[in-house]
Structure formats: structure tokens, C-alpha cells
Design a protein that fits this description.
CATH topology of one domain: Alpha-Beta Plaits
CATH architecture of one domain: 2-Layer Sandwich
CATH class of one domain: Alpha Beta
Distance between the termini: 88 Å
Number of helices: 8
Structural class: alpha+beta
CATH superfamily of one domain: Ribosomal protein S6/Translation elongation factor EF1B
Length: 320
């Protein structure tokens, strides 16, 4: 005890030094623990970076930033989707909005009358009293159901028919649609030709509705029909085209028709080259002799075609 009193400052300094050494040891221990954790994290980051660098494509390096390139390409895709939406314009329903039986019955009669007049103006033959696949609804005032779908189909049938009228085909034979209402399902045997045994297809992006349209024309009108579907603001996909000779060759306008018979009363005369928008046959070049009887045999001769087109209408689903 006397020694401690004589060396009090030394003892106090030793105790303080031991405390400092203990604190330093604890600090070093904690630092080593943090360093170990940081080192393990660093190894994980290095491993992940190496894995990403070895993948193809990789995120890039200091010269090529593939991640930024991917973001730029994503913006380009989004811009393309926005611009492409102009080609997926929906066809307005007839009538629009909340459809009632009375509103649809009136709209159906007006639309059929309008299409018949447009066909007459374009010189397109229609079957007598043709109602454009709505035989089951033409004489109905109170409908069993499915009015919204019927209104949608009426608008779509109108647009498809007007594509053919604009192409000035010679004869519009029929258009067939899918069944969407109880009136369609309960239709009589005579009305079965209005329908096709298919159903609309729905995926994550759109509804695809099939139609089948039959008409008669020459090759220039057929090309205009295909162009009309391709240039429409609504997305039509021509799934199949079946082309066959329509029958006996036409003679002169107003003479025997497609099968050698006179057209029924009220039908417009069939058009021949040089009439109603069909290009006239080009005259032979000047100075070239014209072959008379007994000359060269005709190799290619334009004839009336019977065409059946399976077309699908793509309608985008509403955005959530």
C-alpha cells in the first residue's frame, strides 16, 4: 500500500493505459467485424458484376452503356406503339351509346337502306332485297338480347361493305358474320347463310372478329378491294382469298349476265372494260399491225371472277 502511495501517478497512468488498450481492442474488433461484412458484400457485388458482364448481352462498360441503350430502345418501342394505335381505330357502333331495341331497329333499317343506295350509286349488283346478313333482325322490333354486340357488328358490316363499294366490284353476293345474339342462334334455315361457324378470338391485347365476304369482279377491282382493306384506318387482316371463274363470259353491258341470263329487274347492268371505272383496253401502238381474223390466238383474256375473302378485324382492348 505504501508502494502505491509512493507511485500513485504511475498506478493511475497504468490503469488508464489498460483502459485505453481495452477500448482500442474493442474498437479493432468491431472494425474487423465491419471489414469482414464489407468484404463479403464486396465479393457478392464483384460476383454479380462478373455474372452480368459474362452474360450476352451484358450491361456494357465505360465505353458502351447497354443499359442506357436498352432504355432508349424501350422509349422507341413505346413511341412506335403510340403511332401504331392510329391503325387500330375502333369502328363506331350503330347506333352508338346505350342501345335500346327501338334505337337499334331504326338504325338497322336506315343503315340497310343507305348501303343499298350506296351500292346502286357505285353500280354494284346486290341480291334482291339484300339485308347484309341481318335477316334475323330486319323484321324484329323487340330483340332477345345482345344489342351492344349487334350494334358493333352493324358498324363493322357497314365499313366492310363500303370497302367493296369503293372498289366498284361488279356484284356483292354476301357477307357473313359470327352469331352474337339469341335471334342469331334461333334463326331459320334460310338465314343460316348469314353466319359463319366461328367465334371471336380474345387475347391479352385485342379482340379478333372474323367475317367472310363474297363478291364478283375483274382483277382490277379485286386489287382495289385488297388496297382498301390495307389502307383502312381500322386493322383488317386478310386471312384467305379464294378466287374462281364466275361462269360464262360477259358480253356487252345490259346483255346476258354472269351465267348467260338477263339480270333480274332493278339490277344495274354489268360493267365491261371502259365502263364504270374499269380501265379501257389500251390501243395498239402506232404503226403496229392489228391481227385480224386468222391472226394470233388470244392467250390471256379477262374474265369475271367469283371471290371469297376471309377477313379479320382487330380491335384493341381498353387500357386498364
Amino acid at each position: 500500500m505504501a508502494w502505491i502511495k509512493r507511485n500513485l501517478f504511475f498506478v493511475i497512468g497504468g490503469v488508464f493505459a489498460l483502459g485505453m488498450l481495452g477500448g482500442a481492442g474493442f474498437y479493432i474488433f468491431k472494425g474487423m467485424s465491419r471489414n469482414t461484412t464489407a468484404f463479403n458484400t464486396f465479393n457478392e457485388v464483384v460476383g454479380t458484376l462478373k455474372t452480368l458482364t459474362d452474360t450476352k448481352p451484358s450491361p456494357g462498360n465505360d465505353k458502351i452503356d447497354n443499359a442506357q441503350i436498352a432504355r432508349d430502345q424501350d422509349k422507341q418501342v413505346q413511341a412506335w406503339v403510340a403511332s401504331a394505335s392510329a391503325y387500330f381505330q375502333p369502328i363506331p357502333s350503330i347506333p352508338p351509346g346505350n342501345v335500346t331495341s327501338e334505337a337499334y331497329a331504326g338504325a338497322l333499317r336506315r343503315t340497310i337502306d343507305q348501303l343499298q343506295k350506296e351500292a346502286e350509286t357505285a353500280g354494284v349488283m346486290l341480291p334482291p332485297n339484300y339485308v347484309f346478313s341481318f335477316s334475323a333482325q330486319r323484321q324484329v322490333v323487340k330483340f332477345a338480347g345482345g344489342l351492344d354486340q349487334l350494334a358493333t357488328q352493324l358498324g363493322e358490316v357497314k365499313v366492310i361493305s363500303e370497302v367493296l363499294f369503293a372498289a366498284r366490284v361488279n356484284a356483292f353476293d354476301s357477307i357473313q358474320r359470327v352469331r352474337v345474339s339469341d335471334d342469331d342462334l334461333n334463326g331459320q334455315t334460310a338465314q343460316q347463310a348469314d353466319y359463319i361457324d366461328e367465334r371471336p378470338i380474345t387475347n391479352d391485347l385485342a379482340i379478333i372478329t372474323p367475317y367472310v365476304v363474297s363478291f364478283r369482279c375483274f382483277t382490277p377491282e379485286l386489287s382495289r378491294v385488297m388496297t382498301g382493306f390495307a389502307q383502312a384506318s381500322n386493322t383488317f387482316i386478310v386471312k384467305a382469298v379464294n378466287v374462281q371463274p364466275a361462269g360464262a363470259n360477259l358480253q356487252i353491258s345490259g346483255a346476258p349476265g354472269m351465267n348467260g341470263e338477263m339480270p333480274p329487274p332493278g339490277y344495274p347492268p354489268m360493267r365491261m372494260p371502259g365502263e364504270g371505272g374499269y380501265p379501257p383496253m389500251a390501243p395498239p401502238p402506232a404503226g403496229q399491225p392489228v391481227a385480224g381474223k386468222g391472226g394470233l390466238q388470244t392467250v390471256l383474256k379477262e374474265q369475271l371472277l367469283r371471290v371469297t375473302v376471309e377477313v379479320e378485324l382487330v380491335k384493341l382492348l381498353p387500357k386498364n
